[in-house]
Amino acid sequence: MTRDPRLPWSTRSVNLAYFLTRNARRLGARAAVIRGTEVLSWSALDDRVNALAAALRDRFGLGPGDRVLVHAQNGPQMIEVMLACWRMGAVWVPANVRQSPDEVAYLAQKADVTLMICDASGAAHAAACTAAAPGMRHVIAIGGGFGADYEAAVADHTGARVSDADVDRDTPAWLFFTSGSTGRPKAVVLTHGQLSFVVLNHLHDLMPGTGPADISLVVAPLSHGAGLHQLVNMAAGAASVLMPPGPLDPAVAWELVARHRVTNMFTVPTIVKMLTEDPAVDTHDHSSLRFVIYAGAPMYREDQKHALRKLGPVLVQYFGLGEVTGAITVLPREDHHPEDTPAALIGTCGFERTGMQVSIQDAAGAALAPLQTGEICVAGPAVCAGYDGDDAANAAAFRDGWFRTGDLGHMDAEGYLYITGRASDMYISGGSNVYPREIEELLLTHPALGEVAVLGARIPAGARSGWRSASACPAPPSLPRR
């Protein structure tokens, strides 16, 4: 267990796997993970996690601090691997299942992984990772076919008991790879203590009152935000229902909501749009839903209004990055309105999460007044421990204790945050700052448009005479604000 030598007292934290330990003891026979007709109780999940952790330790030689790369579709095994890694003190490194072999090989090399677990379709990914990461000693396949067989490894260690490893508040638990929009993906270090705060924050700010009677439907990849949401439900003792493999089928999702009386789900705006525009939303009972949480990208106002009309007052929005594990702002159910009335908070992503602080800063790091646009910066216990092995990225992202998100926005006098775009997206036309998001929102108010996107284009010098500058065009009406 790593401790700061300057501190004479212990900074020991609770191992994230202890959520499972506690549930197995208190809720043992109740459902933990459901997929189709397969139901894993909390005690059965605990047994399988113990067996897998023992196999990783005793058969494959893993120890605390080792990194385990996972490339697999959503399934009970994704949850088992996550918890087994934490139980034995290893670090979970999930990859996006849509990534190519070369992309995943870069993650394996960057994270210096010791072992890889993938499903039966990942043979090419495993081969690429083995070639790229010399420290990767083993491959385990879910479904077999190459490497070691996952189920055989679990079966060989059935009955083993593994205690939750001692961890420090700052012990790494999860390497979360960024999308790489500004270059190669960076490995964000999420720790046991930091994630414990985020879990409690999610339960307080996003899903208050969630407990063992609740059921969550997993409709997004467990390798990213849905994995954290599943951990949040686990902390509350709530079961998770997994979709069948393959592309998201809205009709299947709504049937599962009705059958299991689902109370919450984590989504992104495109999934909310897909679910609420499918005819199945009107043919299945979804009255059990209390929280439909969306994040990952802004939701256009017209899509938001449509979802509210279909689902009722269940939408919860949060804004956050992987580096802050989603915990920057929240727009709760009561701040969502289906009509553009004066009470509606149109265009905001909400107010600061409990225990977090947001500051709008200029290029020099000075705080700006309300309604002034600048970079959104954040501080608090949800901020990550930095980027793994990347001093340059850390120097650029942290300033005077604040994490710099790279997003532009402003706050109103009441503390509601409005995002205007990325610093790299803003362009100047006719001497004015133009944010593509605002143009897209305006276009979507036209009834003939369902989806829009504003893209940058370089205009050849000889063709410019045929274009009208923004300053020569009539000014569009302002977007409604509170």
TrEMBL record:
Alphabetical list of PANTHER family matching this protein: LONG-CHAIN-FATTY-ACID--COA LIGASE, NONRIBOSOMAL PEPTIDE SYNTHASE PES1 (EUROFUNG)-RELATED
Residue stretches making up the AMP-dependent synthetase/ligase domain: 21-387
PROSITE patterns in alphabetical order: AMP_BINDING
Domain of life: Bacteria
Family matches, as Gene3D superfamilies: 3.30.300.30, N-terminal domain of ligase-like
Sample GO molecular function, one term: long-chain fatty acid-CoA ligase activity
EC annotation from Swiss-Prot or TrEMBL: 6.2.1.3
InterPro entries: AMP-bd_C_sf, AMP-binding_CS, AMP-dep_synth/lig_dom, ANL_N_sf, ATP-dep_AMP-bd_enzyme
Pfam families in the record: AMP-binding (PF00501)
Name of the featured protein: Long-chain-fatty-acid--CoA ligase
Group of enzyme by EC: ligase
UniProt entry keywords in alphabetical sequence: Ligase
